[in-house]
Write a structure and sequence with these properties.
It is built from 20 helices and 18 strands. The protein is of the alpha/beta class. The chain has helices spanning 16-21, 41-47, 51-54, 59-63, 73-80, 125-134, 148-161, 177-186, 205-213, 229-233, 249-261, 287-292, 298-304, 320-336, 345-353, 359-373, 386-389, 416-430, 435-442, 446-455, and strands at 5-6, 14-15, 26-31, 36-39, 84-91, 97-108, 114-123, 139-140, 143-144, 167-171, 195-199, 238-242, 263-264, 273-274, 278-283, 307-311, 342-343, 378-379. The protein folds into 4 domains: 5-129, PAS domain (Beta-Lactamase); 138-218 and 227-310, Rossmann fold (3-Layer(aba) Sandwich); 314-387, Helicase, Ruva Protein, domain 3, CATH 1.10.8; 424-459.
């Protein structure tokens, strides 16, 4: 990309590209034919397209907005000579639909002739999530729950969001670590800046270093262009390092160096770049054990673990399963344009007794599957995945091997309170009256079982 300058504004020319990169939102410049001729780091982070991939292409091919053909702001700006704004969605390179505000302003020469257009992309997700949050109980951003464990997390997240301290998020696979990281970013003062995610276990060490820290042209074979790296793309925002336990030791040293001096050095460069980036890391591994095994640096753990958020597994979150089942029912009704009212008592009993080893992600996938195959107004047992209800080739499934509470076949219109009371009685009978074992059979915590025994007036 040719070097561009701003002339005659000061006594010396300004580097136009550096000027754009400091703007905390996506910015790009097009010519009169709407071909992209310049983008900033905010644009790259939001769309997922690098400058090399975007330059020369029509902006509609990169933004892929449904409004590009109908209400193009560039076309209106060309007709009126004034800036134009629209709210729409774009599709990022990784196929995420992102709500944005696009503003286009004409760039005119000294004779008043339009030579191109300066366009901005403002990420509207923080505003939309704030509106959704005000209409949701038992939630923080995209996180849902009303168990005591989740309430504690909801109380601490707003405090952590206002800090720039590094945060380490731990928990089993599927508990929602990505959602916590994004919630911290969207609730912070960095919300207008980029949120850049890197999976430390998805790339080999040689590629991961270039992906994180960038490289200079000629730094290694195949490096034909300068690459900014994810740290630089996240400048002014948050860098989320998921699966941090998979980060190679050599890169752990380089990450530790950044956390000490806040300067990144791209491969092949001796000139550092001061990156204003908040680090949020996540892992399902036990980093303390890895430190003892000398596969993770203790000093890096200290620097990342300034604040820790631990997400409990779903099986320990007491009443959250029912809340999440209803939440995803509403979500998929809207997405699939269906009007399924709820779960049949037998199906609900199976779901509430299941241990969800895959946590919230597994629960979500189960509801999505059931919603897709259900043609009626109620999800029945036949709509649940086979591994929840069936045996395969005479062998017990994983769920069949677990203790379970069988429901008596009865009136399908019976209320859930009747079904739940019967489940508790069956569990107490199977457990010989031992409440701790009955709670395990039901997949509940002891406090939940005690509360429901009192609620239903069970003499136990």
């Amino acid at each position: 990309m040719p070097t561009a300058h701003i002339n005659h504004l000061f006594q010396t020319d300004l580097d136009f590209q550096k000027f754009l990169n400091h703007i905390p939102m996506g910015v790009f410049v097009t010519d009169r034919e709407k071909r992209i001729i310049c983008v900033n780091h905010g644009f790259e982070a939001l769309t997922g397209f690098s400058s090399d991939q975007a330059l020369g292409l029509p902006c509609r091919d990169i933004l892929r907005s449904r409004q590009c053909m109908l209400h193009c702001p560039v076309k209106k700006a060309m007709e009126t000579g004034e800036s134009q704004s629209i709210e729409t969605d774009i599709i990022s390179r990784d196929r995420q639909r992102i709500p944005v505000r696009i503003t286009a302003a004409p760039l005119c020469d000294s004779h008043g002739k339009t030579r191109g257009f300066l366009e901005t992309l403002e990420d509207l997700r923080p505003l939309k999530q704030l509106g959704e949050k005000q209409n949701k109980a038992f939630s923080f951003s995209s996180l849902i729950g009303r168990s005591p464990q989740m309430e504690k997390i909801f109380q601490i997240l707003p405090v952590l969001a206002q800090s720039d301290a590094s945060v380490l998020i731990t928990g089993e696979t599927g508990t929602g670590k990505d959602l916590v990281a994004e919630a911290l970013h969207q609730s912070s003062e960095r919300a207008r800046g980029p949120f850049v995610k890197v999976n430390c276990g998805a790339l080999p060490e040689t590629l991961l270093e270039s992906e994180l820290f960038g490289h200079m042209k000629g730094a290694f074979t195949g490096a034909q262009e300068n690459k900014p790296g994810r740290f630089r793309l996240a400048h002014g925002g948050t860098l989320f390092l998921t699966e941090i336990g998979d980060l190679p030791l050599s890169l752990q040293v380089k990450l530790l160096t950044f956390l000490d001096d806040r300067i990144i050095f791209p491969l092949g460069s001796t000139r550092g770049f001061p990156a204003n980036v908040r680090i949020v890391a996540a892992t399902h591994r036990n980093l303390e054990n890895m430190v003892r095994e000398k596969t993770f640096r203790q000093d890096l753990l200290f620097r990342l673990n300034v604040a820790r958020v631990h997400l409990p597994p779903l099986r320990e979150r007491e009443d959250d399963v029912r809340l999440l089942l209803d939440h995803f029912l509403t979500t998929f009704n809207r997405q699939l344009k269906k009007s399924i009212r709820g779960y049949a008592p037998e199906a609900l009993g199976i779901l509430l007794a299941y241990s969800f080893e895959g946590n919230v992600r597994e629960l979500r996938n189960i509801v999505e599957y059931a919603m897709n195959v259900c043609a009626g107004s109620t999800i029945n047992t036949c709509h649940l995945p086979a591994y929840l209800t069936c045996t395969v080739s005479g062998q017990e499934t994983t769920q069949d091997k677990k203790p379970s509470v069988m429901l008596h076949q009865g009136n399908p219109e019976a209320s859930w309170n009747t079904v739940e009371r019967q489940m508790i009685l069956n569990a107490l009978i199977q457990a010989g009256g031992r409440k701790s074992k009955a709670a395990t059979l039901l997949g509940w915590g002891r406090s939940t079982l005690w509360r429901k025994i009192k609620q239903y007036g069970i003499d136990a």
